[in-house]
Amino acid sequence: MTAVAENATGRGSGVVLEVEGLTVDIRTPEGTVRAVDDVGFTARRGETLALLGESGCGKSMTARAVVGLLDPVAEVTAGAVRVDADAGRVDLVTADERTRRAMAGPEIAIVFQDALTALNPVYPVGTQLAEPFRIHRGMNRKQARSMAVDLMRRVGIPEPQTRVDSYPHQFSGGMRQRLLIAMAVALSPSVLLADEPTTALDVTVQAQIMALLRDLRTEHRMAVVLITHDLALVAEEADRVAIMYAGVVVETGPVQDVFAAPRHPYTKGLLDSVPEHVAPGEELRSIGGAPPELAAVPAGCVYQDRCPLVRDDCRAARPPLVPVGAPTADRAAACFHSSEVENA
Ligand SMILES: Nc1ncnc2c1ncn2[C@@H]1O[C@H](COP(=O)(O)OP(=O)(O)OP(=O)(O)O)[C@@H](O)[C@H]1O
Ligand SMILES: [Mg+2]
Protein backbone atom coordinates (compact mmCIF):
# COMPACT_ATOMS: atom_id res chain seq x y z
CA MET A 1 0.00 0.00 0.00
CA THR A 2 1.35 3.44 -0.84
CA ALA A 3 1.49 6.16 1.79
CA VAL A 4 -1.29 8.02 0.01
CA ALA A 5 -3.56 5.00 0.02
CA GLU A 6 -2.83 4.39 3.68
CA ASN A 7 -3.86 7.90 4.55
CA ALA A 8 -6.97 7.61 2.45
CA THR A 9 -8.15 4.68 4.58
CA GLY A 10 -6.97 6.29 7.80
CA ARG A 11 -4.73 3.32 8.58
CA GLY A 12 -1.42 5.08 8.09
CA SER A 13 -2.32 7.63 10.76
CA GLY A 14 -2.69 4.96 13.46
CA VAL A 15 -6.38 5.64 13.95
CA VAL A 16 -7.92 2.53 15.54
CA LEU A 17 -11.27 4.01 16.53
CA GLU A 18 -13.25 6.42 14.43
CA VAL A 19 -16.59 7.63 15.72
CA GLU A 20 -18.65 9.65 13.28
CA GLY A 21 -22.06 11.28 13.60
CA LEU A 22 -22.97 9.11 16.57
CA THR A 23 -26.47 9.90 17.77
CA VAL A 24 -28.30 8.28 20.69
CA ASP A 25 -31.96 8.79 21.50
CA ILE A 26 -33.55 7.85 24.83
CA ARG A 27 -37.19 6.96 25.27
CA THR A 28 -38.60 8.61 28.37
CA PRO A 29 -42.20 8.75 29.63
CA GLU A 30 -42.30 12.35 28.37
CA GLY A 31 -41.08 11.44 24.91
CA THR A 32 -37.83 10.83 23.06
CA VAL A 33 -34.79 12.93 23.96
CA ARG A 34 -31.40 13.09 22.27
CA ALA A 35 -28.59 12.32 24.72
CA VAL A 36 -25.78 12.14 22.17
CA ASP A 37 -26.01 14.30 19.07
CA ASP A 38 -23.77 13.83 16.04
CA VAL A 39 -20.68 13.03 18.10
CA GLY A 40 -17.39 12.37 16.35
CA PHE A 41 -13.83 11.71 17.49
CA THR A 42 -10.88 9.49 16.64
CA ALA A 43 -8.44 7.59 18.82
CA ARG A 44 -5.01 6.51 17.71
CA ARG A 45 -2.87 3.59 18.70
CA GLY A 46 -0.75 4.29 21.79
CA GLU A 47 -2.46 7.55 22.76
CA THR A 48 -4.89 8.62 25.45
CA LEU A 49 -7.90 10.52 24.22
CA ALA A 50 -9.91 12.17 26.98
CA LEU A 51 -13.65 12.60 26.70
CA LEU A 52 -14.19 15.52 29.07
CA GLY A 53 -17.37 17.18 30.25
CA GLU A 54 -19.68 17.97 33.15
CA SER A 55 -21.99 15.41 34.69
CA GLY A 56 -24.90 14.50 32.41
CA CYS A 57 -23.30 15.73 29.16
CA GLY A 58 -23.47 12.27 27.61
CA LYS A 59 -20.02 10.78 28.16
CA SER A 60 -21.17 7.39 29.44
CA MET A 61 -23.96 7.19 26.90
CA THR A 62 -21.38 7.79 24.16
CA ALA A 63 -19.08 5.10 25.57
CA ARG A 64 -21.89 2.57 25.87
CA ALA A 65 -23.05 3.35 22.34
CA VAL A 66 -19.50 2.84 21.03
CA VAL A 67 -19.31 -0.69 22.47
CA GLY A 68 -22.95 -1.47 21.66
CA LEU A 69 -24.03 -1.92 25.27
CA LEU A 70 -26.75 0.66 25.76
CA ASP A 71 -29.65 0.32 28.17
CA PRO A 72 -32.83 -0.90 26.48
CA VAL A 73 -34.36 2.63 26.64
CA ALA A 74 -31.52 4.04 24.54
CA GLU A 75 -30.86 3.50 20.85
CA VAL A 76 -28.22 4.53 18.32
CA THR A 77 -30.23 6.31 15.64
CA ALA A 78 -27.38 7.49 13.42
CA GLY A 79 -23.64 7.32 12.98
CA ALA A 80 -20.74 4.94 12.62
CA VAL A 81 -18.21 3.41 15.02
CA ARG A 82 -15.33 2.08 12.98
CA VAL A 83 -12.81 -0.14 14.68
CA ASP A 84 -9.68 -1.56 13.10
CA ALA A 85 -9.69 -5.32 13.20
CA ASP A 86 -7.55 -7.94 11.50
CA ALA A 87 -10.36 -8.24 8.98
CA GLY A 88 -10.15 -4.53 8.17
CA ARG A 89 -12.34 -1.70 9.34
CA VAL A 90 -15.59 -2.82 10.90
CA ASP A 91 -18.52 -0.51 11.65
CA LEU A 92 -19.92 -1.75 14.94
CA VAL A 93 -23.20 0.10 14.43
CA THR A 94 -24.13 -1.85 11.31
CA ALA A 95 -22.25 -5.07 12.11
CA ASP A 96 -24.30 -8.15 12.93
CA GLU A 97 -24.50 -9.37 16.50
CA ARG A 98 -21.98 -12.17 15.91
CA THR A 99 -19.33 -9.80 14.57
CA ARG A 100 -19.96 -7.36 17.36
CA ARG A 101 -19.58 -10.03 20.01
CA ALA A 102 -16.43 -11.37 18.37
CA MET A 103 -14.90 -7.87 18.52
CA ALA A 104 -15.86 -7.08 22.11
CA GLY A 105 -12.77 -8.10 24.04
CA PRO A 106 -10.14 -8.75 21.37
CA GLU A 107 -10.60 -5.41 19.59
CA ILE A 108 -12.48 -3.02 21.86
CA ALA A 109 -13.22 -3.20 25.57
CA ILE A 110 -14.70 -1.01 28.28
CA VAL A 111 -14.33 -0.49 32.01
CA PHE A 112 -17.75 0.76 33.06
CA GLN A 113 -18.27 3.78 35.28
CA ASP A 114 -20.03 1.82 38.04
CA ALA A 115 -17.38 -0.84 37.67
CA LEU A 116 -16.78 -1.49 41.36
CA THR A 117 -20.11 -3.26 41.49
CA ALA A 118 -19.61 -4.98 38.13
CA LEU A 119 -17.87 -8.09 39.43
CA ASN A 120 -20.17 -11.00 40.18
CA PRO A 121 -20.09 -11.56 43.96
CA VAL A 122 -20.84 -15.29 43.80
CA TYR A 123 -17.85 -16.41 41.70
CA PRO A 124 -14.16 -16.34 42.58
CA VAL A 125 -12.40 -13.59 40.61
CA GLY A 126 -10.29 -16.18 38.79
CA THR A 127 -13.37 -17.71 37.21
CA GLN A 128 -14.44 -14.31 35.93
CA LEU A 129 -10.97 -13.41 34.67
CA ALA A 130 -10.71 -16.77 32.91
CA GLU A 131 -13.95 -16.28 31.00
CA PRO A 132 -12.59 -14.27 28.03
CA PHE A 133 -9.93 -16.92 27.43
CA ARG A 134 -12.51 -19.70 27.49
CA ILE A 135 -14.98 -17.88 25.25
CA HIS A 136 -12.68 -16.24 22.72
CA ARG A 137 -9.63 -18.49 22.80
CA GLY A 138 -11.35 -21.81 23.47
CA MET A 139 -9.01 -22.63 26.36
CA ASN A 140 -9.79 -25.34 28.89
CA ARG A 141 -10.31 -24.55 32.55
CA LYS A 142 -6.70 -25.12 33.56
CA GLN A 143 -5.17 -23.07 30.76
CA ALA A 144 -7.63 -20.22 31.32
CA ARG A 145 -6.95 -20.22 35.05
CA SER A 146 -3.24 -19.90 34.47
CA MET A 147 -3.93 -16.97 32.10
CA ALA A 148 -6.04 -15.40 34.87
CA VAL A 149 -3.17 -15.69 37.35
CA ASP A 150 -0.86 -14.14 34.80
CA LEU A 151 -3.25 -11.29 34.21
CA MET A 152 -3.58 -10.63 37.95
CA ARG A 153 0.17 -10.43 38.22
CA ARG A 154 0.34 -8.01 35.30
CA VAL A 155 -2.12 -5.60 36.87
CA GLY A 156 -0.25 -5.64 40.17
CA ILE A 157 -2.33 -7.89 42.39
CA PRO A 158 -0.09 -9.48 45.03
CA GLU A 159 0.04 -13.27 45.42
CA PRO A 160 -2.08 -14.01 42.36
CA GLN A 161 -1.72 -17.80 42.72
CA THR A 162 -3.75 -17.73 45.93
CA ARG A 163 -5.83 -14.60 45.29
CA VAL A 164 -7.22 -16.14 42.11
CA ASP A 165 -9.62 -18.15 44.30
CA SER A 166 -10.80 -15.16 46.36
CA TYR A 167 -14.18 -13.53 45.92
CA PRO A 168 -14.67 -9.88 44.86
CA HIS A 169 -15.64 -8.70 48.36
CA GLN A 170 -12.24 -9.87 49.63
CA PHE A 171 -10.51 -7.17 47.57
CA SER A 172 -10.21 -3.43 48.25
CA GLY A 173 -11.81 -0.90 45.89
CA GLY A 174 -8.50 -0.21 44.19
CA MET A 175 -7.78 -3.93 43.74
CA ARG A 176 -11.28 -4.51 42.34
CA GLN A 177 -10.68 -1.72 39.83
CA ARG A 178 -7.42 -3.48 38.87
CA LEU A 179 -9.37 -6.71 38.36
CA LEU A 180 -11.86 -4.96 36.09
CA ILE A 181 -9.11 -3.37 34.07
CA ALA A 182 -7.50 -6.82 33.86
CA MET A 183 -10.73 -8.30 32.48
CA ALA A 184 -10.99 -5.49 29.92
CA VAL A 185 -7.41 -5.87 28.64
CA ALA A 186 -7.36 -9.69 28.85
CA LEU A 187 -7.41 -10.13 25.08
CA SER A 188 -5.19 -7.11 24.32
CA PRO A 189 -7.80 -4.90 22.66
CA SER A 190 -6.62 -2.10 20.40
CA VAL A 191 -9.11 0.28 22.07
CA LEU A 192 -9.89 0.54 25.78
CA LEU A 193 -12.63 2.84 27.03
CA ALA A 194 -12.25 3.66 30.71
CA ASP A 195 -15.28 5.49 32.11
CA GLU A 196 -14.31 7.48 35.23
CA PRO A 197 -11.88 4.70 36.22
CA THR A 198 -10.62 6.48 39.33
CA THR A 199 -13.53 8.58 40.54
CA ALA A 200 -14.49 6.29 43.41
CA LEU A 201 -10.91 5.88 44.62
CA ASP A 202 -8.74 7.92 46.94
CA VAL A 203 -5.94 10.01 45.48
CA THR A 204 -3.08 7.55 46.06
CA VAL A 205 -4.96 4.64 44.53
CA GLN A 206 -6.10 6.90 41.71
CA ALA A 207 -2.47 7.59 40.81
CA GLN A 208 -1.68 3.86 40.89
CA ILE A 209 -4.59 3.04 38.58
CA MET A 210 -3.58 5.76 36.14
CA ALA A 211 -0.02 4.41 36.16
CA LEU A 212 -1.38 0.95 35.43
CA LEU A 213 -3.42 2.24 32.49
CA ARG A 214 -0.33 4.02 31.14
CA ASP A 215 1.76 0.86 31.40
CA LEU A 216 -0.89 -1.26 29.71
CA ARG A 217 -1.32 1.32 26.97
CA THR A 218 2.40 1.16 26.20
CA GLU A 219 2.58 -2.61 26.50
CA HIS A 220 -0.35 -3.29 24.17
CA ARG A 221 -0.08 -0.13 22.07
CA MET A 222 -3.73 0.49 22.86
CA ALA A 223 -5.73 3.60 22.31
CA VAL A 224 -7.17 4.57 25.69
CA VAL A 225 -10.35 6.64 25.75
CA LEU A 226 -10.36 8.19 29.21
CA ILE A 227 -13.79 9.43 30.19
CA THR A 228 -13.77 11.99 32.95
CA HIS A 229 -15.09 15.27 34.34
CA ASP A 230 -11.66 15.96 35.87
CA LEU A 231 -9.80 18.72 34.03
CA ALA A 232 -6.53 18.22 35.92
CA LEU A 233 -6.54 14.50 35.19
CA VAL A 234 -6.94 15.28 31.49
CA ALA A 235 -4.07 17.77 31.63
CA GLU A 236 -1.83 15.13 33.20
CA GLU A 237 -2.83 11.99 31.37
CA ALA A 238 -4.25 12.71 27.94
CA ASP A 239 -2.64 13.42 24.59
CA ARG A 240 -5.79 14.68 22.95
CA VAL A 241 -9.16 15.77 24.27
CA ALA A 242 -12.75 15.88 23.04
CA ILE A 243 -14.87 18.23 25.12
CA MET A 244 -18.58 17.48 25.39
CA TYR A 245 -21.47 19.73 26.32
CA ALA A 246 -25.15 18.75 26.27
CA GLY A 247 -24.56 15.68 24.10
CA VAL A 248 -22.35 17.49 21.59
CA VAL A 249 -18.58 17.58 21.06
CA VAL A 250 -17.75 21.29 21.12
CA GLU A 251 -13.97 21.16 20.77
CA THR A 252 -11.21 18.64 20.02
CA GLY A 253 -7.45 18.77 19.72
CA PRO A 254 -4.13 18.12 21.44
CA VAL A 255 -4.59 18.76 25.18
CA GLN A 256 -1.76 21.25 25.56
CA ASP A 257 -2.89 23.35 22.63
CA VAL A 258 -6.56 23.31 23.59
CA PHE A 259 -5.84 24.22 27.21
CA ALA A 260 -3.31 26.91 26.23
CA ALA A 261 -5.64 28.59 23.75
CA PRO A 262 -9.23 27.29 23.75
CA ARG A 263 -11.30 27.90 20.63
CA HIS A 264 -14.75 27.25 22.11
CA PRO A 265 -16.29 29.52 24.78
CA TYR A 266 -17.28 26.48 26.85
CA THR A 267 -13.70 25.23 26.97
CA LYS A 268 -12.57 28.70 28.00
CA GLY A 269 -15.26 28.83 30.67
CA LEU A 270 -14.15 25.48 32.06
CA LEU A 271 -10.52 26.54 32.22
CA ASP A 272 -11.36 29.90 33.78
CA SER A 273 -13.47 28.22 36.44
CA VAL A 274 -10.67 26.14 37.95
CA PRO A 275 -7.80 27.49 40.00
CA GLU A 276 -4.46 27.45 38.23
CA HIS A 277 -2.97 24.66 40.31
CA VAL A 278 -5.80 22.25 40.68
CA ALA A 279 -5.06 18.77 41.97
CA PRO A 280 -6.38 15.66 40.22
CA GLY A 281 -9.61 14.53 41.81
CA GLU A 282 -10.88 18.03 42.47
CA GLU A 283 -14.34 18.71 41.12
CA LEU A 284 -14.84 20.78 38.02
CA ARG A 285 -16.45 24.00 39.16
CA SER A 286 -19.00 24.90 36.59
CA ILE A 287 -19.68 28.13 34.82
CA GLY A 288 -22.61 30.40 35.74
CA GLY A 289 -25.92 28.72 34.91
CA ALA A 290 -26.43 25.05 34.18
CA PRO A 291 -26.41 22.84 31.09
CA PRO A 292 -29.86 22.53 29.48
CA GLU A 293 -32.19 19.66 30.29
CA LEU A 294 -32.08 17.10 27.49
CA ALA A 295 -35.70 17.83 26.61
CA ALA A 296 -34.89 21.54 26.34
CA VAL A 297 -31.61 21.61 24.39
CA PRO A 298 -32.02 24.66 22.15
CA ALA A 299 -31.95 24.61 18.39
CA GLY A 300 -28.79 26.36 17.31
CA CYS A 301 -25.72 26.26 19.51
CA VAL A 302 -26.10 24.08 22.63
CA TYR A 303 -24.06 26.57 24.68
CA GLN A 304 -25.96 29.75 23.69
CA ASP A 305 -27.66 30.29 27.06
CA ARG A 306 -24.36 30.46 28.96
CA CYS A 307 -22.14 31.94 26.30
CA PRO A 308 -20.62 35.42 26.63
CA LEU A 309 -20.14 35.62 22.85
CA VAL A 310 -23.68 34.65 21.84
CA ARG A 311 -25.16 36.37 18.74
CA ASP A 312 -28.21 35.88 16.57
CA ASP A 313 -26.46 33.41 14.28
CA CYS A 314 -25.76 31.14 17.29
CA ARG A 315 -29.49 30.90 17.96
CA ALA A 316 -30.38 30.36 14.31
CA ALA A 317 -28.25 27.31 13.51
CA ARG A 318 -26.09 24.68 15.22
CA PRO A 319 -22.41 25.40 14.55
CA PRO A 320 -20.73 22.30 13.11
CA LEU A 321 -17.43 20.96 14.47
CA VAL A 322 -14.97 22.31 11.91
CA PRO A 323 -11.17 22.50 11.73
CA VAL A 324 -9.65 25.58 13.38
CA GLY A 325 -6.10 26.96 13.36
CA ALA A 326 -3.34 25.80 11.05
CA PRO A 327 -4.15 22.84 8.78
CA THR A 328 -1.68 20.71 10.76
CA ALA A 329 -3.04 21.80 14.17
CA ASP A 330 -5.37 18.79 14.38
CA ARG A 331 -7.95 20.99 16.10
CA ALA A 332 -11.64 21.57 15.64
CA ALA A 333 -14.30 23.66 17.34
CA ALA A 334 -18.07 24.00 17.01
CA CYS A 335 -18.38 27.76 17.30
CA PHE A 336 -19.21 30.45 14.74
CA HIS A 337 -17.02 32.90 16.65
CA SER A 338 -14.09 30.69 17.61
CA SER A 339 -11.52 33.25 16.52
CA GLU A 340 -12.82 35.62 19.23
CA VAL A 341 -12.68 33.11 22.08
CA GLU A 342 -9.16 33.76 23.28
CA ASN A 343 -9.77 37.42 23.92
CA ALA A 344 -13.28 37.00 25.31
N1 LIG B 1 -31.87 5.41 31.42
C1 LIG B 1 -32.00 6.71 31.19
N2 LIG B 1 -33.21 7.29 31.00
C2 LIG B 1 -33.35 8.61 30.75
N3 LIG B 1 -32.30 9.45 30.69
C3 LIG B 1 -31.07 8.95 30.87
C4 LIG B 1 -30.85 7.56 31.13
N4 LIG B 1 -29.52 7.37 31.28
C5 LIG B 1 -28.95 8.58 31.13
N5 LIG B 1 -29.87 9.53 30.87
C6 LIG B 1 -29.62 10.95 30.62
O1 LIG B 1 -28.73 11.04 29.52
C7 LIG B 1 -27.81 12.11 29.70
C8 LIG B 1 -26.41 11.63 29.53
O2 LIG B 1 -26.10 10.75 30.60
P1 LIG B 1 -24.64 10.14 30.79
O3 LIG B 1 -24.75 9.08 31.81
O4 LIG B 1 -24.08 9.76 29.46
O5 LIG B 1 -23.84 11.40 31.36
P2 LIG B 1 -22.31 11.48 31.83
O6 LIG B 1 -21.67 12.55 31.02
O7 LIG B 1 -21.69 10.14 31.78
O8 LIG B 1 -22.43 12.02 33.33
P3 LIG B 1 -21.59 11.62 34.65
O9 LIG B 1 -20.36 12.48 34.62
O10 LIG B 1 -22.49 12.00 35.76
O11 LIG B 1 -21.29 10.17 34.61
C9 LIG B 1 -28.11 12.68 31.09
O12 LIG B 1 -28.86 13.85 30.92
C10 LIG B 1 -28.90 11.62 31.77
O13 LIG B 1 -29.82 12.19 32.67
MG1 LIG C 1 -20.98 8.91 33.16
List low-pLDDT spans: 1-11
Main sheet? 8 strands, mixed
CATH fold type of the largest domain: Rossmann fold
Percentage of helical residues? 25-40%
Q: Look at the structure and give the CATH class of the largest domain.
A: Alpha Beta
- State which percent range the strand residues make up: 15-25%
* CATH architecture label name of the largest domain: 3-Layer(aba) Sandwich
- N-to-C CA distance: 47 Å
What count of helical segments does DSSP give?
12
**Shape estimate:** globular
Question: What keywords describe this structure?
Answer:
cell membrane; binds magnesium ion; ATP-binding; binds adenosine-5'-triphosphate; alpha/beta; eight-stranded mixed beta sheet; P-loop_NTPase; 344 residues; four-stranded antiparallel beta sheet; Rossmann fold; 2 domains
Describe the protein.
The chain is of the alpha/beta class. The chain folds into two domains: about 250 residues, P-loop containing nucleotide triphosphate hydrolases (Rossmann fold, 3-Layer(aba) Sandwich); about 70 residues. The chain is about 30% helix and about 25% strand. The strands form two sheets. The chain has an eight-stranded mixed sheet with strand order 6-7-8-3-9-10-12-11, sandwiched between helices. A four-stranded antiparallel sheet has the order 2-1-4-5. β1 and β2 form a beta hairpin. The longest helix is centred in the middle third of the chain and has 18 residues. The N and C termini lie far apart (about 45 Å). Bound molecules: adenosine-5'-triphosphate and magnesium ion (MG). One of its GO terms (biological process) is peptide transport. It comes from Pseudonocardia kunmingensis. Keywords: ATP-binding, Cell membrane, Membrane, Nucleotide-binding, Transport.
